[in-house]
Amino acid sequence: MQRRSAARLGPLLLLLLLPVAWGAGPEPPRAAGELQVSSRLAGQAARVALHYLNYRLGSPSALRALGQVRKATVKTIPGIGHKYYLQFTTEDYKSSQNVGTCLATVLYLKRKPRPAVNINCTYTKDQKQTREDDYSFYKKLRQQTKPITGNDIPDSYGHIEPALEPAWALAVAGSSYLMWEKSTENLGYFMAQVKNVKQWITKDDSIDFDYLVILHEIPTQEMISCHLRVIWTPGHPLKVKYFCLSENQQSESEEGSGTESGSTNGIFNEEEANF
Length: 275
What we know:
The chain is α+β, with helices and mostly antiparallel strands.
């Protein structure tokens, strides 16, 4: 389950590539108007929208990564914050194949750290097949005779053992919540690595994992350790709890249950010219 993008490379390669890709320091937004599609702020806002989408869908078979930003504008709302209007392509997190285009707005509020996101996407992948893939994924995990455990996913070469791919997929979905929660206009996040994972065998129908994940904060280059608890059942909102400890030892915790504000409206019918 490997991608060519920096978000899926091993931590050592990640540290080398991200400063070049994202720039060395803060990039102040324009007061209003169009942004260059290659700008860090445009890419960061698009990734925030995808963090929100991956978390709200709660589907390890429907995870998306950013392809290319095609259009980005920003508007200043006096007393409230900056609102980004975005159009971008997306890729399947596992295969890197194009899986559709998204229109999104991301509002960074001055008095509330979590961005407000609305996102609508087209889907090239059959939705019935996605549900069937989720069920097969779920059935495989429920049939485990021994709990899944592992360390350093991916390893320093970017490799993920096939037996650990299910644990990695749910880590991506769960960490999407905390990356959306922590993102600000000037700070973005990648999940660099799962340091360790343990599956809990449950008596109900849920899949339950405990993780220690490492987030890479951009542009500060800080590495943040987060304990993450992810509980998943197909067709139900993903449940996430986390506790993070940054390099300066400041801690924070939060939980989500798939009921936060925002919207993911699935297939959109808006004309691109109207966006």
